[in-house]
Amino acid sequence: MIDTDKYEGHTEGPWTVDESLMRFAITSANIELVKDAPLLLAEVKRLRYALLIHNICPTCHDTNGEDNCCKEWRMMKND
């Protein structure tokens, strides 16, 4: 489980990068967030996979595939 308390007070996005100049405040919360980005991405992928195997749309949490977002999810699932 990820300790998200260390990100409290981070700069709200969107963050931009312009010619190697990051435009966000250098705070300890922001540094932790940037440092943990690969871990957070892996967690998102893990959770999306868990939804996929349980047949739950990650957008609307529908299980019967009636909404357009669910139809797109079903197409991704079948790939």
Model description:
It is a single chain. This protein is mainly alpha-helical and 79 residues long. It has helices at residues 28-35, 37-53, 68-78; strands at 17-18, 21-22. A two-stranded antiparallel sheet has the order 1-2. The two termini are 29 Å apart.
Measured distance between first and last alpha carbons: 29 Å
- Poorly predicted sequence stretches spanning 5 or more consecutive residues: none
**Which strand order do you get reading across the main beta sheet?**
1-2
Tell me the helix content.
40-55%
What structural class results from the helix and strand content?
mainly alpha
Helix count? Answer: 3
Oligomer: single chain
- What is the makeup of the main sheet? 2 strands, antiparallel
Q: Strand-residue fraction?
A: 5-15%
Averaged pLDDT, please? 76
Element order: H for helix, E for strand = EEHHH
Which shape, going by the Cα principal axes? Answer: elongated
Report the C-alpha radius of gyration, rounded.
17 Å
Number of strands: 2
Structure summarized in a few sentences:
With 79 residues, this protein is mainly α. The protein has helices spanning 28-35, 37-53, 68-78, and strands spanning 17-18, 21-22. The longest helix is centred in the middle third of the chain and has 17 residues, at 37-53.
